[in-house]
Structure formats: C-alpha cells, structure tokens
Amino acid sequence: MNEKLLKHFKESGRFTYAGLYAPYFKTLPDDITELGNLVCAQIIHRITLKQGNSGANADLRYGDMTRYPWHRMRCEDDVFLTASSITAELFRMDGRGFASDRAVENKLVLCCRYVSVLMSAILKAKGYAARSRAGYAPYIVNGISMDHWINQYYDEALGKWITIDADGFFKKGELPFDSQYNIPQEQFDFAGPTWLDIRQGKKDGSKFIYADGLGTNSLKALSLYVFYDLNALMNQELTFSFAPLWWSHFDKMTEEELGKIDLIAELLNEPDENFDELHKIWSEDKFWRLFCSPLVGESDFI
C-alpha cells in the first residue's frame, strides 16, 4: 500500500480529531471485535429507541428502553457532531467513560454515521490507517439496502483494508457472513459502484433507501451517498445536515451534471488507486465542495 495514502488515513479531520482524548482512546481494547462491541454499548440508534423493547431489541440486547428518560432528545445527531464531543458527553453522564455496562439512561442516541466517526477517531489514535465509508447495507432489512456508514482499517499484516460495522450487536446467524468485524467486500453496497449499477440498469434503484423520513430512493438517494463517501475519504465525514447545492434540484440535473457524479462513482470503484484524482477533483471542483446546511442556503453562494 502507498505509504502516502496510509499517512493520509492515519491523520484526523475536524470530526475525527481526538484532541485530549487521544491518550484515553489508546487505553481502549486493541482487539477490534472487543473495541467495536464496547463502542456499540455506549449508543442507542434512534430507530431502536423508537421501537422500544421490540424488533432488534426484543431480547434487550441494547437494554430496557423504558428506562430512557422521557425528557431526553429522541435523536442527538445534531448535538454531538464530532468524536471528541461524543466522548465528552459519555464521560459527563458516566465518569467511567466507555463502560460495557453503561445504563440505558446514560447512553447517547446516535445513528451509524456517528458510530463510524467515533470508531475512526479511536482507530486513528491507536495508529491505524482508518476511514469512514458511506454507502448502503443490504443486511439490515430484508429485501432492501439501507443507507449506512461503516469503517475500514488497514491490516498491515494482511496488506488489505478490513471492513467493519460497529453500529449494532449482531448475533451469530443474523448476518449473511461470519462477522460484522470482517465484512466481505461484496456484502456492502459502496456508493460509487452502486450508483453506476443503477445508471446502467444492472440494479433496481427502488431497493436503495435513504432514511431521510421521505423514503428517498434510487439515484437521488445514491447521489447523496456518493457525495458523503467522497468527503469521508478526504477525512471530512459530513453530517446529514449538509448536502451539496445540487441536491435540492436533483430531478432537474443535466446529463453534464450527472456525468460529474458518474466520474466520481467510477473512481470510487478503486478509491486507493484513484485517490490522487479524487483528491484533485474534490479540491478544485465547486460541484463537490459547496454545500448547504440549516443556516447556509443556495442563495448564500450567489
């Protein structure tokens, strides 16, 4: 593997910067499975909270949801954007920090992107080349592929990236592969290749759902995740509050604009081999660098 590339993924961005928590992160388990399960024990997904003690939590693997305080936010995604802020709040609520027996009332309600960012931060603090990836997981809900964030870390002994998912406790037999901490490449729908498959009619776009509350699917859903995955590879793991300027008028995009997404999607087929070109486009093309947020709209760029 290119040493320059590994150096890039050992570095932190604004979201994965460990800051004063770096020494603490180094004390956390070195075993990836143990570490992933520990991180998972600190967090409740908002869907799990909503379903209560049913569905994936029927066996209370995430704890008794009736103990979660009624006055707490049902989703804290907009509050704890960075790994350091997540960690600070975990310590505020339980001074032990990352505790395997953390009480439900002291857990944070965050979705997959935040788990991924936290894992990336911890792995980077431990000296790994690590990255968050945005795409779609076909193993969460039968028959569809849901938008999802995972992690990859570089195993220097094996000389390859290992794909892991720390967002949930999956018991043996619940997944179509052996372990959530060693996911086969073909078992995750990476955004770029999937975009191309839908564009070329190889896959049914209606099966790819962005959980935005609107059930956005097909190419519009994938376009946003191509955007997120590109930024994540640049160590900028944007939250769901951010979207490219073209997102609001996706249905009216020209073939030239769609072609820009095609190009990035093709390069994302082999992100390591194409990293320099991806970085050049990301650095220079406003199409990928200008985005909206709750306080910044399209009119601000005119």
Task: Provide structural commentary.
- 35% of the residues lie in helices and 13% in strands.
- Strands 3, 4, 5, 6, 7 and 8 form a six-stranded mixed β-sheet that branches. A two-stranded parallel sheet has the order 1-2. The protein has a two-stranded antiparallel sheet with strand order 9-10.
- It has helices spanning 3-10, 22-27, 32-40, 46-51, 83-93, 112-125, 191-199, 218-233, 255-267, 275-284, 286-289, and strands at 43-44, 108-109, 130-137, 145-155, 160-164, 189-190, 208-210, 216-217, 243-244, 291-292.
- It has 302 residues and is an alpha+beta fold.
Count all strands and give the number: 10
What can be said about the biggest beta sheet?
6 strands, mixed
Question: Whole-number radius of gyration?
Answer: 19 Å
Helix content: 25-40%
The poorly predicted ranges are none
Order of helices and strands: HHHEHHEHEEEEHEEHEHHHE
**Proportion of strand residues:** 5-15%
- Gap between N and C termini: 42 Å
Number of helices: 11
**What is the overall pLDDT average?**
95
Query: What best-fitting shape do the alpha-carbon axes yield?
Result: globular
Based on secondary structure, the structural category is alpha+beta
Mind sketching the topology for me?
Elements: H1 3-10, H2 22-27, H3 32-40, E1 43-44, H4 46-51, H5 83-93, E2 108-109, H6 112-125, E3 130-137, E4 145-155, E5 160-164, E6 189-190, H7 191-199, E7 208-210, E8 216-217, H8 218-233, E9 243-244, H9 255-267, H10 275-284, H11 286-289, E10 291-292
Parallel strand pairs: 1-2, 4-7
Antiparallel strand pairs: 3-4, 3-6, 4-5, 7-8, 9-10
